[in-house]
Amino acid sequence: MPLKLFALLGCALLLAGCEVLFVANTLVGCAMRPEMEILPRELPVARAGEPYRVRIEVVDTSSPLTGIHVDPRQPLPAGLALEHAERAAHGVIGGTPLTPGVYSLRIYAGSYGTQCVGKEAERSYRLEVLAAD
Description:
By secondary structure, this protein is of the alpha+beta class. It has 2 helices and 8 strands; from the N terminus they run H-H-E-E-E-E-E-E-E-E. The strands form 2 sheets. The chain has a 4-stranded antiparallel sheet, with no helix packed on it.
């Protein structure tokens, strides 16, 4: 038998009936939570010098978010920023991009833990900023 199974069995033997049910219920509940996902799957094209706004959603979160962030190693283009209200399940990339080009960026999010450990999600994006007309 695997070592983890022995550890769980040992814990179960130390606990009374109610505690065993509570711990088992918590373990199963934590294991069955869906993975968080960041949406949309792709960012719409932007145009340099024109306002840009896209909503970033984090779905399948069972607790409030600790934050939605842009990886500083793959930042948004100049003129754009990600805004997120604490504990909200969404944020907004907004602003006016300044320079045309193709940008690679990564957005990540995390949730608070409750009886279960918090979750994390990330998504890599390709953002195309077209030249102004």
